[in-house]
From TrEMBL:
<feature type="domain" description="Aminotransferase class V">
    <location>
        <begin position="15"/>
        <end position="290"/>
    </location>
</feature>
<dbReference type="Pfam" id="PF00266">
    <property type="entry name" value="Aminotran_5"/>
</dbReference>
<dbReference type="InterPro" id="IPR015422">
    <property type="entry name" value="PyrdxlP-dep_Trfase_small"/>
</dbReference>
<keyword id="KW-0456">Lyase</keyword>
<dbReference type="InterPro" id="IPR015421">
    <property type="entry name" value="PyrdxlP-dep_Trfase_major"/>
</dbReference>
<dbReference type="InterPro" id="IPR015424">
    <property type="entry name" value="PyrdxlP-dep_Trfase"/>
</dbReference>
<protein>
    <submittedName>
        <fullName>Selenocysteine lyase</fullName>
    </submittedName>
</protein>
<dbReference type="InterPro" id="IPR000192">
    <property type="entry name" value="Aminotrans_V_dom"/>
</dbReference>
<dbReference type="GO" id="GO:0016829">
    <property type="term" value="F:lyase activity"/>
</dbReference>
Amino acid sequence: MHEAFGEQFQIQPGYLNTASTGVPPLRVGRRVASAVEDWYTAAHPNASFDAEVDAARAAFATLVGADPDRVAIGSAVSSLIGMVAAGVPDGTRVLTAAEEFGSVVRPFAVHADRGVTITEVDLEALPERVADHDLVTVSVTQSRDGRTVDLAALRAAAERTGARVLLDVSQAAGWQPLSLGWADWLVGVSHKWLLSTNGACWLACSERGLAEARPSAASWYAADDRWNNLYGASAALHPGARGLDTSPIWHAHLGAAEALPWLVSLDLASVRAHCVGLADLLLERLDLAPRDSAIVALDLPDGAGSLAEQGIAASVRSGRVRLSFHLYNTEEDVDRVVRALRS
């Protein structure tokens, strides 16, 4: 058992794979497990968690600096971004980072038949290329190597040109402070740095972004007065962001309702300092330059093999070993990696 930032975690030393799957606080895991038991023992087999969906929705908005009344919920990044992509005009010119995570850009790519085009550029060059495009879609922190887009430069470029901006915060929210209400759309998932069950996702919209997204999924959960409008074609969708809601995976949002308000209560500047401090300490001990990110990507001859033999959990992305540090990691994890590599 390990305690960090006021919560207990049942986690083994050497777990450095939060960028794939975060480990929830023990309290969060037990709450979800209890609800699952209620289901399979038929204690509450048809339980819904509307209050928890809304609590997680509000907490996500706080974490990213958005308006909670303009947050839609769903279960996958690609499906929520798909509603943004469905609403862009024919011929929209989309800008993204080279080797961006597929779910962030492919929902636009499938509209090529409408003349939607995709331009991929180096992440560092992205702000200077905004002027030639109508919409930018990019992860705040890149999944494959932990690099972060220059948000100030991107915002300035978008404000000069009027370009729309969609930011994926899936690899950023939860370990660093964010204030991104200026973006048109913000999307993020529950099961990485937000330490919740897989299956919850959010789309925060600006006023302009909400007006331009298209509710192409038109879920029953998006209906105005949803529980009294379950049937038929004529039920009106909610006039706000909830009109973009898709059917929730109940237990995922239940877990998020436990984890996200706790994350909101933390000093995220301290969380960031902890995570980045450990990542940069590892780089220093490997005689590499600091990268100011909680994610480290290393070129290792045998991939993650030597690390796995020493009980270290990591991922391989684009041929590089990806290590990710969160609030439950310690200097002991850094030491384990260094020993494994030197052995």
